[in-house]
Amino acid sequence: MSLAPRAVLVHRTTEYEELVARYGTHGQAAFVLASRGRDIEEIAARHQGTRRALAEVTAAVPLTWRQARVERADLERFLFAPEDVVVVVGQDGLVANVAKYLTGQPVIGIDTDPGRNPGVLVRHRPRDAAKLLAAPGGGCEELTMVAAEADDTQRLVALNEIYLGAAGHQTARYRLGLDGDRGAVEAQASSGVLVGTGTGATGWLRSLWQERGGRLPLPSPTEPSLLWYVREAWPSPATGTTLVSGRLDASAALTLTVESDHLIAFGDGIETDALHLTWGQRVRVGVWGERLRLVG
């Protein structure tokens, strides 16, 4: 007998909750913020809006379904099941946070703060939840993801981008190679390499794209292509600056061989969840086989 679908509501601790946890009471948090020229009432109002949105979405889950709720900090310990429908209640970045833990489950993004969130990934309002949950598999966009795989079986998957470089963004030394480019390899010293998707083209990747004059066409979020950029490559007798940007299709990859004591790779801005790479290790970055199924 097949299990009933399970709605998994993903949320994060609000800024108000973090402030009260840090300072102990609403009044003490208000005092500290006032001394810094901020008003806690605005933060408290956004907190209440998020709580209302969570309550409205929870009430919209069909009575025959199972339910679960998971906070962002607990995602790595949560076991998603094939029959899950994931409902992200919060900001765009929360969709990226959950994407790497999924294997084809549909994701519904609910915007708790319209006007403050761009709404690129959280495209719906709480009032839309009942209609969307009635047919969660319909109208999904399949968004391309990026993966970094090290030669010791470490793997990192991200929705927006993967950064490879030194912890603290200091000078990283490595050898950069390209698949399908006659085996081109170049020793480099830089502040790191960024490889991003079409979804990531609305964030960090776009800043580098604009800085380089926008010469490479940005992929769409569903296109199986990536853009990569080397940040601040340094020319010297031992290091070059020829391979500094490019586009990868679904069958191509960028290969980085570490020539520093310690480099890291992290995805979607979360440095605490990183691959740790040592001298001589190789890491391959390319399009990931899984896609994020985002309800449009």
From TrEMBL:
Where would one find the signal peptide in this protein? Answer: none
Q: Which InterPro entries match?
A: ATP-NAD_kinase_PpnK-typ_C (IPR017437), NAD/diacylglycerol_kinase_sf (IPR016064)
Domain of life of the source: Bacteria
Q: Name one GO molecular function term.
A: kinase activity
Q: Which UniProt keywords apply?
A: Kinase, Transferase
The answer, when asked if Transferase is one of the entry's keywords, is: yes
Task: Please report the name of this protein according to its UniProt entry.
Answer: NAD(+)/NADH kinase
Query: What is the source species?
Result: Streptomyces graminearus
Read off the lineage from the record. Answer: Bacteria, Bacillati, Actinomycetota, Actinomycetes, Kitasatosporales
